[in-house]
Amino acid sequence: LYAVEALAAIDVEPALPHLVPLLAAPDPIRSRVTQLLSTAGAAAVKALREHLDAKDPQVRKGVLDIFGRLKDVDTTDVLFAGLLDPDLDVVRKAAQAYRQRIESMPPAEKGKALKKILEFMESPKVQKAKTPLASCLLIVGALRDPSAAKAVLKYLDRKMPPAARNHALLALQGVPLEGAAAKGVAAKLLPLLGEADFNEIVKPALDVLYKIPLGKEEAERAMKLLGSPHGAVRHYALRALGAIGGSSAAAPLLESLMGDDP
Q1: pLDDT in tens, 150-191
Q2: Averaged in consecutive runs of 10 residues, what is the pLDDT profile of the chain (262 residues)?
Q3: First-last CA distance in the chain
Q4: 185 by DSSP, 3-state: which?
Q5: Helix, strand, coil shares of the chain as percentages rounded to 5?
Q6: Is-contact 135 91, C-beta < 8 A?
Q7: pLDDT tens per residue across span 81-106
Q8: How far is CA 169 from CA 68, 153, 162, 174, in A?
Q9: Cβ distance 93 to 82 under 8 Å?
Q10: What is the DSSP letter of 55?
Q11: CA–CA separation, 134 vs 245, rounded Å?
């Protein structure tokens, strides 16, 4: 740490290429090196890029973390490359760094970012690997763009990896849903409540559905949910039927009042 501080006190810029490998060092060295590289801004980009393929995944994670902090430098290509890393922890760090950049993006830039990430998800490399999809979907959700809902829904298909299906639901929790888009999401999510995996599929699907008022066209499906083995699903069905109203909903609501299910 004393050597790092000595370099910083003299002239840190020539030392930047030598500092990057120290991102794998333990704290407090790693934290101080991260601060110095982040503060260097554009001057550190070349040195950071040269270590994107570092053998140590801790260095790669540290590089991506700093690229997520550089607000005045376009690092999209670097972070997308990180999403294709063979190490899942590095992939997650790339997604976290990208979401960090989203926080300071103006609305116009967020629209462009959404287009880029959706195109990236459709690229042959991502479709072949599948591993980056889950992290990419969290980025889509962080952009909070209602137009993204339709694109996210296809990742709920049973043919998709379990992590991608779960993260598609998590992404929808961040997307504002109204009108026709909300109806489309409800129609896609209601059947998921019949699946066996409560924690990864049913629970996050419920979290999204609670944001969407169901129309009368969904009354029959809601009544079928009253027979679910999941108590949380039965509770949701009752609330949905109460909101839908009408004579068709009256009987199951009265029955629930007289039943043993709390």
Answers
A1: 999 999 999 999 999 999 999 999 999 988 899 999 999 999
A2: 66 83 91 90 92 95 94 89 95 95 90 95 93 96 94 95 96 92 93 95 97 86 89 91 66 51 55
A3: 60
A4: helix
A5: 75, 0, 25
A6: yes
A7: 999 999 999 999 999 999 999 988 88
A8: 25, 8, 11, 9
A9: yes
A10: S
A11: 37
Whether 149 and 184 have beta carbons less than 8 Å apart is answered as: yes
Fill in the DSSP letter of residue 123: S
Cβ neighbour number for residue 98 with a 10 Å cutoff? 27
Q: 120, 126 in Cβ contact below 8 A? A: yes
At position 214, the amino acid (one-letter code) is L
C-alpha distances in Å from residue 133, one per residue of 55, 93, 166, 171:
24, 14, 11, 11
Distance CA 114, CA 20 (A): 30
Per-residue model confidence (pLDDT) at position 187: 93
Residue type, 194: G
- Quick one: 85 exposed, middle or buried, by C-beta within 10 A (0-12, 13-18, 19+)? buried
